[in-house]
Predict the structure.
Amino acid sequence: MKSFEKDLRFAGGTGQLLGRLEEVLASMKGVRDVKTVGDAMVTAAIGVSARSWGEVITCRIVPDVGGTARVTVSSRSKVKTTLFDWGANRRNVGEVLRLLSVSGDPSGHPGSSPPE
């Protein structure tokens, strides 16, 4: 799988979530170049490893109903010709959502439980 994406709904505004996403991404092993793009997106790069040429993680925040916001996290391989990522993109997305859930309580809406 060359990419993976999943989302989670959180209580709170986009500004608060943006700061939490920056902290979460910066705390992950191998992550570098954490950048905020506009007022609703954060990107980060994961460097080369023994099994990968690296990945790009993108987190988008979209305001949702009832004072919540939906965070969509995606991870894709840096090299477009990658055929297998050995589960790296799924692990990256799961780790971001897990750390985000731990750093702030999810709103309890459907789909807000931490990934397996």
